[in-house]
Amino acid sequence: MLILVLISVTACLAMLDITMKSVIEGYLKQGEERTAFGGKVVLRKVYNKGFCLNILKNKPEIVKYTSAYAAVILTIYQLFTLLRKGRFGKKAGLSLLTAGAWSNTFDRWLRGYVIDYVGFETKKEKLTRLTYNLADFFIAAGVVLTAASGMTHGAVKGLKGLAKKKTA
C-alpha cells in the first residue's frame, strides 16, 4: 500500500509543478515581477535552458537527454527501493527527487527549457536574482531526506554491530 501512496505522491508533485509552470507561463510576461509575503517572495518568469544555474545552456540536446536518462535511472532506483522493506525516509526522499526530475525533464522536452518562477528577496543582489521552481525544491528536499536517511540507517547499523560485539 505504501508503494502506491509514494508513487501517487511522486506523480501528484510532478503534476503540481507542471501546472504551476503553465500558470506562470500564461500569467506573467518575461521580466515581469510580482511580490508576495511582504516582498520576501518574488514571482518572476525565467527560462532556464541549462541545468541548475543555466549550466550547459548552450548545449540543449545534452541537457535534454541527460535529464531524461537521469529521470529514468532515478525512477528505476525508486521502484526497486519501494519494493524493499523499511527505509521510509529514503523512499520519501526518492519520491521527491523523482517528482522534481520528471517535472523539469517534461519542460525540457515539451518547451526546450525549464520555467523557473520563484525567488527570494535578500540583501545580496546575486541571491535575489536566483529563480527556482517547485521541482528544484523537491530535488533539494529529496537529496537532504535521502542523505539523512542513509546516515541514520548507517548509524543504527553501526550501533547494532557494536552491541553484538559487546555481547559476544
Topology at a glance:
Blueprint: H1 2-27, E1 33-36, E2 41-48, H2 60-82, H3 88-110, E3 114-120, H4 125-129, H5 134-167
Antiparallel strand pairs: 1-2, 2-3
Largest sheet: 3 strands, antiparallel
Q: What structural category characterises the helix and strand content?
A: mainly alpha
Structural Rg: 19 Å
Number of helices: 5
Helix content: 55-70%
- The protein's oligomeric status is single chain
Uncertain stretches:
none
* Average pLDDT over all residues: 89
H and E string: HEEHHEHH
What is the global morphology?
globular
Query: Strands of the largest sheet, in order across it?
Result: 1-2-3
- How many structural domains? 1
The first-to-last residue Cα distance is: 39 Å
Number of strands: 3
What attributes does this structure have?
168 residues; mainly alpha; three-stranded antiparallel sheet; 66% helix
Characterize the structure shown:
- The protein is mainly α and 168 residues long.
- It has one domain (2-153).
- It contains five helices and three strands, in the order αββααβαα.
- A three-stranded antiparallel sheet has the order 1-2-3.
- α1 packs parallel to α3 (88-110), α2 (60-82) runs antiparallel to α3 (88-110) and α3 runs antiparallel to α5 (134-167).
- It is globular.
- The protein starts with a helix and ends with a helix.
